[in-house]
């Protein structure tokens, strides 16, 4: 007998105690589950947990010859990669919502050579959206990205240097209008 | 590798941070499907029923540690154990998922526990819609505990019944018992009789049972 897990969105939306509504830039609401550490555990007990985990993660990545990592934040606030970019670091939003968010917020897909700072990189794992980050620096030999690694810290990294289960960079998105030239007088 | 070694690895910080970085439930499940230690643990659970009990006990122990441990949250470890149990021993997973939901205070474990609970309840209801598994979430907490034991028993009995019936069907389909007269019949007659018996077996099984044995 083979059992597969099912989605539970319907149940969450019917139970107000277990849902939290986050709003994207365009005002589009996303219902997210509300099962947080802070529901039960005083945050002081877990002070430093994110820092410990992020340090261990960076060490592990360095062992795998991934060295261009810079930890920017180890905040204990509860948000993830999608929440960092679209919800002002205020919510954990499942990556499965990212396709809809990009559409509602008016993002366009672009090629890698069109990318500038502020654009987005979308990662896939096994052909499913797995992670998102924001481009922080573009040069002729490097493309650096800031992203929140799940429950752990915010890290600036070379765009391909992410933990294995975050996948590989697959798509680039922007909100810049195409073919618009800004003239400075 | 022994069960102790699996436990030691799954409860280590290095193991937990592999999964704490993921951004969604679907990716977490994909990652857990592929992680070599979890693949090995699932194989161990499927071979040895005592391993399933031991994994269930580890979930209970870790739930007590969650509130006192400051260096590790064990969220991913509990989710990993629950995932393995669900794939190999759904009833143990169902029991564990209730413990995790009642405990709360975790991220992936609680989400996965809701998945497991809903999935098994849906499966049971699809087998027998007249059973009427109660909607616990609308219940006061005191009533939930009392009814939980009863419904776990109901679910367990249904799963046992399905497993026994499935095993019987597999045996009947694979090794049809022929009488001594059959031995003297020609090859064609034997084949015809087998087909007839198989047809009888298939027609006696309700569609839901066939679905459950797939």
Properties at a glance:
heterodimer, A: 185 residues, alpha+beta, endopeptidase fold (from Nostoc punctiforme), two-stranded antiparallel sheet, 4 helices, B: 214 residues, mainly alpha, 2 domains, 12 helices, 0% strand, disordered C terminus
| Class computed from helices, strands and strand pairing of chain B | mainly alpha
Radius of gyration of chain B: 22 Å
- Helix fraction of chain A? 10-25%
Quick check: average pLDDT of chain A? 79
Tell me the strand percentage band of chain B.
under 5%
H/I helix tally of chain B: 12
**Helix percent band of chain B:** over 70%
In whole angstroms, the N-to-C terminal distance of chain B is 31 Å
CATH class of chain A: Alpha Beta
**Low-confidence region ranges of chain A:** 1-11, 36-45
Secondary-structure element order of chain B, N to C? HHHHHHHHHHHH
**In total, how many beta strands of chain A?**
9
Number of domain modules of chain A = 1
How are the strands of the largest sheet of chain A arranged? 3-8-7-6-5-9-4
- Extract low-pLDDT stretches of chain B: 129-140, 166-187, 204-214
Residues in β-strands, percent of chain A:
25-35%
Per DSSP E runs of 2 or more residues, the count of β-strands of chain B stands at 0
What is the tally of helical segments of chain A? 4
CATH architecture of chain A: Alpha-Beta Complex
Distance linking N and C termini of chain A: 71 Å
